[in-house]
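Quick one, T. Sequence first:
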Amino acid sequence: MSQLNLWSLENTAISLLQHPSRVVAALLTLFILRRAIIRFFFPAPFTVAARIPTYLPFGIDFIAWSIYHNATSQDIILWNKIFWRYGRGSLPYTVEAVLGPDHVIFTADHENIKSILALQFSDYGKGAKFHRDWKEFLGDSTFATDGRQWQDARHMIRPLFLRERIEGLSVFEKHTRKLLRLFNGPNGQRNNIDVVNPFFRFTLDVATDFLLGVGVNSLDNPKEKFAVAFAEVQKMQRLIQVSGPLQPLVSKVSYRASIKIVNSFVEQFINRTLSLPISELENLAKNDKDYTFLSALALHTRDPAIIRDQLVAVLLAGRDTTAGTLSWAIYELSARPDVVKKLRAEIFSKLKPGDTPNFADLKSMKYLQAILSETLRLYPIISFNMRIALKDTTLPHGGDKDGFQPISVKKTP
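Structure tokens:
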């Protein structure tokens, strides 16, 4: 009997080796069955977040789902699906997925977000993996570092945004006039236009003008080399971030070619500024007309790599946040002529037609301030963010049947 069993096993092994596709199919079937059994008979305990089921190794099915929604600008649809389908009770905004070796928690709960960004700030950080993923683009800037490195970078750039430095609106005015001409037809008539792309070009022109002293003029030339490269880097960076364990399969050819263009553009201004003597940089810092973020930064450090990282980070922050807020504000105002009428009345009560507003004028427009605040409330400028647990810790919501109890969060290895 034992000889027959051995012969049978040997034949089965030979048959499987001759048909490797059967091996893969069998293993995949066993994996899916195991996941289904765990989901239905061994659900996650209430002390951790509700689990998003995945049926392929390393959570590849969920990763593919995420990549598709990100590539088609449907991230919000994905998040709504996973919260409402898999979240708990009347507070379903915290769920967890196992992607490769990582346990990834997704949360839109305001108490959890407040804890991560404020109340338990020291428990969470960006981590080594985030720094590696963003190193080529953001280097060692404030947006890619933790701890002392983050504090040093923040300490360096914070004084450069003094109120008196941002009160001068001339850099905004010239680009705003150009933007308004673009919105009008060739003979000044009203035009139907998608405002998103022009706003992104406008904010890029303003940001480069403020930071470097020279705008890239992408409003005049939508195909401007630096503008196209910067957009490509951002697109690829998002893809890299959502790919999880599949990152090694993402081609970085266009990403690195675009990084090279961005670096080449920025470095020419850095080298020119660093060639100036300290005395001349100090004079520039005292002169509002010739002041630039770059010249002020060069007074704090002579390291071109540090200057490059901070410039690119501030450029990224200044461009996307402003363009997004402007786009959503116009979107909402286009459906509310009553609000537009009230806003125009406030503007004309402060300024005459043709007047250029100053910082004090804008601050005095309370209704305008309220519109911008409501836009930011409805459409936060940072739609999603990422952190890792620097130690074993907790989040206040996501546990128990109703989702109102705390959950445990393990330190990220």
